[in-house]
Specification:
heterodimer; A: alpha+beta; SH3 type barrels; five-stranded antiparallel beta sheet; B: alpha/beta; Rossmann fold; two-stranded antiparallel sheet; 31 helices
């Protein structure tokens, strides 16, 4: 994860921490996306989503 | 729970009295969407007091509850995801716990997303308060296929855990019982406080050693060191500017700079702790199971269908509001306010004319008329509270996000702006939910451009007089035009007036769930009480002032001060085809938008008969001028209650003046343009 301190801190408290499993529920190519992380659905603007680097995993994604 | 059940209540009371403490202060903490307000509402009911946190525009709710002779003073902390200073809410919540030292902190957690919810508990435990975990929404979790064993969780956390379903009023007694017993030391309390990860243990110790002797009471020094490591803005400023000698701060700063990534490590450490806590307690659903929320969201958050659903829901909201609210409003207007005016008239028959005018035209005609709008607002707020409680509003915000982006806002601003269709005052107040200062200010500035129920009433009243069968079309076109102006103004303010970064859009979409009647009822009650309070104070006062201006000095409106003002503005009115009486009607709408109808009634001497009024009005105005009048009315300066709300929320006369000036210029320019163009046709 990278980005401004404030956004990072908010994302981290919502459960976006290195190594956390996340699942992209909705992404239509434009507009905000919906991600399932730690049992909660979070809507993220595309700009915010760009702070999160993910690597694919069988059946899910690995955020870092 | 670990409480020994069945102790007689009178023994409890005796113990409480013995401890010298029959009043407990209990803070209710929790993340958003955990049913915290349902718990608070069930316990406090109508005893609750709604105000603001000192010096902040964040709502503060307090209330009392009696339990076996113990008076529990309940304080509802703002819903926060963490206790790091990302927002005013988080600072308020932690400052309350640290500085006011409540006897017990109840952490309400949502069993359906326990992992994320326990993050807040991980932040609460190091604050050295007694914590009871209220494991709420057990039923919602079960619907999602998640099972939580409270005893196992309790054993892991070392603090009392009470399972409950607040929406069905289950488990609340047990919760309060646990709070009471814990406060009296009758429950075991060995909290498993989260430790920092090994990779930053040493750094934390270094910082702690440097700051420990400078940390002001009542902050726990280890906690301050941890917050410094997390880069917490408020604690950093406190230690740098007030507590640490400069050379000591330089040392601390050097360490912090070398460990800028610590914020993620600290958060990960807390989640590691949460993982250990829930490992044995939670049974997850089988993979691939499709839940109700997922099924509904396929439609509700779809870029195309989602908008269709939103449009349909809004249509129903408006239809319900006006189908149910308007007849009630008319009923109140004719039978309650009308009969009250008649009764006052006959009662004051022998009194001086000024007293008669003050009571009948000023107080009853002004503030009384405003109160008749309560049913319309009531229905509107009830339907919106229902949508909010079910979890739909977050979806509406989500599908509107793309459009709000054009104005530099994001989806969250849609919710308060939508409230504006009922009344602009709650729209301005509702902008509190937006976390960025800049987006919040912009939302407040745009809120008065949402056509409120009162303005729509004037529209519905005047349009048929001039446009006959095309009236509905004209009305819709004017509403659409007003919203178009809102969008353009939003884009322009965003681009030219406000500086600063665009806010991040990060919003939780809660699980859908059955609405709770009590939560909705209390919400509607609070909104209505707020409205009535305004009608009884500010609007009442302004009604009297306007009446006085329209009656002084000779008791005749044609020669009154108000008329002089209107006549002085006549050249401006000529540009819009409006005579001084129409200008006075617009000025009077500053008190309350629907006042323009009442004022026209007085000025045209049409009496209370609606058809006579219509005839008088259509004799004075051309259709082009009528259209110009409606345009000005839709865009005119916000009513006095909204102006007061803007001042209160922005804490700035500058921005309040900006809002009034902007709308004044917009409305006059719109009116002149409309009249000049329409006259050509």
């Amino acid at each position: 994860m990278r980005g401004g301190h404030c956004v990072l801190s908010r994302l981290a408290s919502l459960g976006f921490t290195p190594g956390a499993l996340l699942k992209v529920i909705q992404n239509y190519g434009r507009g905000p996306i919906i991600v399932l992380v730690r049992d909660a659905r979070i809507a993220l603007g595309r700009g915010e989503a760009n702070h999160i680097l993910v690597e694919p995993l069988a059946g899910g994604n690995d955020g870092r | 729970m670990g409480a020994e059940a069945g102790a007689p209540p009178d023994l409890d009371r005796a113990a409480a009295v013995l401890n010298g403490k029959v009043t407990l202060t209990v803070a209710l903490a929790g993340q958003p969407n955990v049913g915290k307000s349902t718990v608070f509402n069930l316990l406090t009911g109508l005893s609750q007091h709604v105000g603001n946190w000192p010096g902040k525009t964040v709502e503060q709710k307090t209330g009392t509850y009696r339990h076996n002779g113990t008076t529990i003073h309940l304080v509802d902390l703002p819903g926060t995801y963490s206790l790091t200073a990302n927002s005013a809410e988080e600072v308020i919540a932690r400052d309350y716990i640290i500085k006011e030292r409540p006897d017990v902190v109840v952490a309400v957690v949502n069993a359906a997303s326990l992992e994320r919810n326990l993050y807040l508990v991980a932040e609460l435990l190091p604050l050295a308060a007694l914590v009871v975990v209220g494991l709420n929404m057990v039923d919602v979790a079960a619907d999602e296929g998640v099972a939580v064993e409270p005893q196992v969780l309790e054993a892991a956390l070392g603090v009392p855990v009470v399972p409950m379903t607040a929406a069905k009023n289950k488990g609340l007694y047990e919760l309060v019982e646990a709070v009471d017993k814990l406060a009296q030391g009758k429950l075991p309390y060995r909290p498993n406080v989260p430790e920092i990860r090994d990779d930053h243990r040493e750094v934390l110790d270094q910082i702690h050693a440097l700051v420990a002797d400078c940390v002001p009471a009542p902050y726990p020094s280890e906690w301050v060191a941890l917050k410094l490591l997390e880069g917490d803005d408020e604690i950093t400023a406190l230690m740098r500017d007030e507590c640490l000698p400069p050379e000591r701060w330089d040392q601390v700063h050097e360490i912090l700079m070398a460990h800028e990534d610590a914020v993620l490590s600290v958060a990960s450490g807390r989640y590691d702790w949460v993982g250990r806590m829930i490992r044995a307690a939670v049974t997850r659903p089988r993979a691939g199971q499709i839940t109700l929320t997922e099924r509904l969201d396929r439609w509700a958050t779809h870029p195309l269908w989602g908008l269709g659903i939103l449009a349909a829901i809004l249509g129903v909201v408006f239809w319900l509001t006006f189908a149910l609210g308007t007849p009630l409003q008319e009923f109140l207007d004719v039978y309650v306010v009308g009969s009250l005016a008649d009764a006052a008239s006959s009662l004051l028959a022998g009194a001086p004319a000024w007293l008669h005018g003050l009571v009948v035209d000023g107080i009853i005609g002004g503030a009384g008329t405003v109160i008749t709008f309560l049913p319309i607002l009531l229905v509107f707020f009830a339907v919106l509270a229902l949508l909010e409680d079910m979890g739909y509003m977050a979806r509406a915000a989500y599908v509107m996000d793309r459009f709000m982006h054009l104005m530099g806002l994001h989806g969250k601003s849609f919710m308060p702006l939508f409230l504006g269709f009922g009344c602009n005052v709650p729209a301005v107040m509702g902008a509190r939910i937006i976390d960025s200062q800049r987006a919040r200010l912009l939302t407040i500035l745009l809120a008065p451009l949402v056509p409120c129920a009162a303005r729509m009433t004037v529209l519905v009243f005047v349009a048929p007089i001039f446009f006959g069968r095309a009236a509905t079309l004209v009305a819709w076109a004017l509403i659409a035009a007003t919203l178009a102006v809102l969008a353009v103004v939003g884009v322009l303010i965003n681009k030219w007036v406000l500086k600063g970064e665009r806010a991040a859009f990060i919003m939780e979409l809660p699980l859908y769930h059955r609405p709770n009647a009590r939560t909705i009822g209390l919400q509607v009650w609070q909104n209505s009480a707020e409205f009535l309070k305004k009608a009884g104070t500010l609007i009442l006062l302004m009604s009297v002032v306007v009446w006085a201006l329209s009656a002084l000095p000779h008791g005749d409106i044609q020669t009154s001060y108000l008329a002089s003002v209107g006549k002085a503005l006549a050249p401006l009115g000529a540009l819009m085809g409006l005579d001084w009486r129409m200008l006075v009607a617009l000025l009077a709408s500053f008190v309350a938008k629907e006042n323009s109808i009442a004022t026209m009634g007085i000025l045209f001497g049409a009496g209370k008969d609606a058809s006579g009024f219509a005839a008088a009005l259509s004799g004075v105005l051309t259709p082009a001028a009528a259209l110009a009048f409606l345009v000005v009315q839709m865009l005119f300066v916000p009513c006095v209650a909204t102006v007061a709300a803007i001042k209160q929320e922005t804490k700035s006369w500058g921005w309040t003046g900006f809002s009034v000036g902007l709308l004044l210029i917009l409305s006059l320019a719109g009116g002149i343009l409309t009249y000049q163009v329409a006259s050509l046709l």
